[in-house]
Design goal:
23 helices; alpha/beta; UDP-N-acetylmuramoyl-L-alanine:D-glutamate ligase; Rossmann fold; 17 strands; 2 domains
Length: 526
């Protein structure tokens, strides 16, 4: 599902109305009806219940007039406060204002603060308020009458339903630009907007409903609409039962360069995660003295001892053996628990320089990212199918951009970085981003705060590596793994709680997550 800016939504409207001849009145009718359906059916508002619609002078207000009409026709006691003069309402919104008035809906014009003071008591008399003041086009902070209305709505105690976007938010940013309605529910038209997806703006949208108001799907199939929200239905084909006539060789062999003294758990978790994700074979190459510990953790893992330093990390003397081990492998994962010892750093940099000739997927996590950060020039020399998996702090070290700026401008700086260095980037955190080398952004909707604990990233890198062995499209493989990782966390949190969730629980709940995705939509089909 696409995530749109205000400009992109206007372009969709323009193409539908001017290009296809779809009347704006029809779109407004569909939008208002969807809002009324949520209020009546989704919220269970019954006949006789008072509902207050606060409408602006533009098309968002027009949607509100339509919603009022449908609610009124179903016996719901509707009243509209219009924040402006009736003569200021134009076009399709005026048509629907006139219809609403003709069927008997009370519409009170409130163009000034003085009049608002007279009528604001109506907020306390309605258990449901519909916010139809401003839509997606707002770009400046609310002030004067509108700021006061927003404050009073937020203090009313009523259940608030916003049309398209809570008034006061900008569709183009998840940052707050000024006072905004804090909605319990938002009915947005055709596609989510950026403000619906990330905090702090997301916290003002409440529960989001995406309404189909009649736009043909072809209007959204544009390469410049580069932000998407991952949906479970798009993952389902990749998690169906395997063909019968297959063997372990069909599901790939992963080489995992990981682990050091005191950090063997990271290597073991990444290896186990890759196997549980469906990898045919996993070989963990690690420091000689660490091998017995990792081997005992999971008998299905193959292991390879490598020369080590005096600190019991992998030595740069391991390069020739690693190059031999790469023969016959289908992907390389490096970094979990590896350390940044100078010899280990030298080994990784030399290995990356050599491995780019293999054209295999290379997933770099944890200490692998830290090593690259110390020699940022190597970013331009990474293999073609590289996946980097930084959290915000790691991305800051990789890019030289502050953590705060990376978080605030993630939808700009992460795609710029991915395009510049021709890599896939998984920007980990709340609503993790998967960004392709072309700058396409896929927002992950799964996951919870319980996953913010040691080892979760190691498990994710294992999931990505395991899926990259089985799904030819690397971008899709990463999207699949990130979604499943978060879903496993959600299923685990649902049973054991967020506070008690461990990284190994993500592996334990992986089968349920895979089964959940594989079954999604089948009840509807039957």
């Amino acid at each position: 599902m696409k995530v749109l800016t205000a400009r992109q939504m206007r372009e969709i409207d323009r193409q539908a109305i001017d290009g296809l001849g779809l009347p704006g009145l029809v779109l407004m009718e569909n939008a208002g009806r969807e809002v009324a359906n949520l209020v009546r059916n989704g919220l269970g508002i019954e006949s006789g219940c008072p509902v207050l619609i606060i409408a602006g002078k533009g098309n968002n207000g027009g949607d509100g007039f339509v919603a009022a009409r449908h609610l009124f026709n179903n016996g719901i006691n509707c009243r509209v406060l219009l924040l402006g003069r009736e003569e200021e309402v134009k076009g399709d919104a005026l048509v629907n204002l006139t219809l609403a008035r003709k069927i008997g809906i009370e519409i009170i014009a409130v163009p000034t603060l003085a009049l608002w003071a007279r009528y604001r008591h109506l907020l306390k008399e309605a258990p449901v308020i519909i916010d139809a003041i401003f839509g997606t086009g707002l770009s400046t902070p609310l002030a004067d009458l509108f700021a006061r209305v927003v404050e009073d709505v937020n203090n009313s105690g009523a259940l608030v339903v916003a049309i398209d976007i809570p008034s006061g938010l900008s569709a183009d940013t998840f940052e707050l630009i000024g006072p905004a309605v804090k909605a319990d529910f938002t009915v947005t038209m055709a596609a989510p907007k950026i403000a619906h997806i990330f905090p702090p703006a997301e916290d003002y949208a409440g529960e989001l409903y995406v309404a189909d108001i009649g736009f043909p799907p072809s209007l959204f199939e544009r390469p410049d609409f580069s932000i998407e929200l991952a949906e479970i239905d798009s993952l389902r084909p990749y998690f169906q039962p395997r063909e019968k006539n297959t063997h372990k060789g069909n599901y790939g062999h992963l080489l995992l360069l990981a682990g050091s003294y005191g950090k063997t758990g990271a290597a073991a978790m990444a290896g186990k995660a890759a196997l549980k994700m469906g990898a045919g074979l996993v070989t963990v190459a690690t420091a000689d003295s660490c091998l017995p510990i990792i081997a005992r953790m999971m008998p299905e893992l193959m292991t390879e001892p490598l020369p080590e330093t005096s600190s019991r990390t992998v030595s740069d003397r391991a390069l020739s053996r690693l190059l031999e081990l790469l023969s016959g492998k289908d992907a390389l994962l490096l970094g979990p628990g590896l350390s940044t010892h100078p010899e280990t750093t030298s080994l990784v940099l030399n290995l990356l320089d050599r491995v780019k000739k293999t054209r295999m997927p290379v997933i770099i996590d944890a200490d692998g990212l830290n090593i690259i950060s110390s020699r940022r020039k190597i970013l331009s020399l990474l293999p073609e199918k590289t996946v980097l998996t930084p959290h915000p702090g790691e991305f800051s070290r990789l890019s030289g951009i502050s953590t705060e700026e990376a978080l605030r401008r993630r939808l700009e700086v992460i795609p710029e970085f991915a395009r510049k260095y021709r890599v896939h980037v998984v920007f980990k955190g709340y609503k993790s981003l998967t960004v392709s080398p072309a700058g396409k952004v896929i927002v992950n909707p799964t996951g919870n705060p319980g996953m913010a604990s040691g080892g979760s990233g190691d498990v994710l890198s294992g999931f990505i590596a395991g899926e990259a062995l089985q799904t030819r499209d690397l971008t899709q493989a990463v999207v699949n793994a990130v979604f499943i990782h978060g879903l496993a966390g959600d299923l685990a949190a649902g049973e054991i709680g967020e506070r008690c969730l461990l990284a190994t629980d993500l592996i334990r709940y992986l089968p349920r997550a895979v089964s959940f995705v594989a079954r999604s939509g089948k009840d509807d089909e039957s």
